[in-house]
Specification:
The complex is a heterodimer of chains A (116) and B (114).
Chain A lengths: L3 E2 L4 E5 L4 E3 L2 E2 L7 E7 L6 E7 L7 E2 L2 E6 L4 E6 L8 E8 L8 E3 L3 E6 L1
Parallel strand pairs in A: 2-12
Antiparallel strand pairs in A: 1-4, 3-9, 5-6, 5-10, 7-8, 8-9, 10-11, 10-12
Chain B lengths: L3 E4 L2 E4 L5 E7 L5 E7 L5 E9 L2 E4 L6 E3 L9 E3 L8 E8 L9 E2 L3 E5 L1
Parallel strand pairs in B: 2-11
Antiparallel strand pairs in B: 1-3, 3-8, 4-5, 4-9, 5-6, 7-8, 9-10, 9-11
The chains are: A mainly beta (116), B mainly beta (114).
Chain lengths: 116, 114
């Protein structure tokens, strides 16, 4: 079973509007971290935002916020006031405790296109 | 701070050739990782290191080797390149192994094996 599921292969949004990118995860651990990364067409992986499993508040970083619903095991990324430069691939990732090779487990990504 | 740097950015290899992908970080991070990203997919862990002199296999280690002689450097070696190793390779580092700790990525190396 996939540990990270991103059900939207592609999303379109108008400039200045908000968009939500979906992410659901699967783990039996109580302690874990959820991350979103942005990969523009240039290829680098840019860290955007992090949510810890014990955090009671949803994480926010500027125009990015994470809608964390623990019972539903979802960690959706919300981008407010979309900009043309937000067009990129977005990856949701989870890091479980040591014993999982310390790795990040990535979803397959969502390609976001911001239209002018 | 440069963060995580990788060289080269691009490389084309012939089947059977060898090469080393270089990775350096200047954040004094103990933990370093090598991932590969195949087209249309997320990243998969190849090898990781928890400190100088200590390395271990990830999900997809076959065909690769690593070493970690210093905190800063974590090179990835391909001994006998195969077309299945055509991919984008990312090096990453983090301060700790806590599940809450962010991994920071280098810019990637795009490798094609023909």
């Amino acid at each position: 079973a996939q540990k990270i599921t991103q059900t939207q292969p592609g999303m379109f949004v108008q400039e200045k509007e908000a968009v939500t990118l979906d992410c659901t995860y699967d783990t039996s651990d109580q302690s874990y971290g959820l991350f979103w990364y942005k990969q523009p067409s240039s290829g680098e992986m840019i860290f955007l935002i992090y949510q810890g499993s014990y955090d009671e508040q949803n994480a926010t970083e500027g125009r990015y916020s994470l809608n964390f619903q623990k019972a539903r095991k979802s960690a959706n990324l919300v981008i407010s006031a979309s900009q043309l430069g937000d067009s990129a691939m977005y990856f949701c990732a989870m890091r479980e405790p040591a014993g999982s090779n310390y790795k990040l487990t990535f979803g397959k990504g969502t390609l976001l296109t911001v239209n002018p | 701070n440069a963060g995580v740097t990788q060289t080269p950015k691009f490389r084309i290899l012939k089947i059977g050739q060898s090469m080393t992908l270089q990775c350096t970080q200047d954040m004094n991070h103990n933990y370093m990782y090598w991932y590969r990203q195949d087209p249309g997919m997320g990243l998969k862990l190849i090898y990781y290191s928890v400190g100088a002199g200590i390395t271990d296999k990830g999900e997809v280690p076959n065909g690769y080797n690593v070493s970690r002689s210093t905190t800063e450097d974590f090179p990835l070696r391909l001994e006998l390149a195969a077309p299945s190793q055509t991919s984008v390779y990312f090096c990453a580092s983090s301060y700790s192994a806590f599940s809450t700790d962010t991994q920071y990525f280098g810019p990637g190396t795009r490798l094609t094996v023909l």
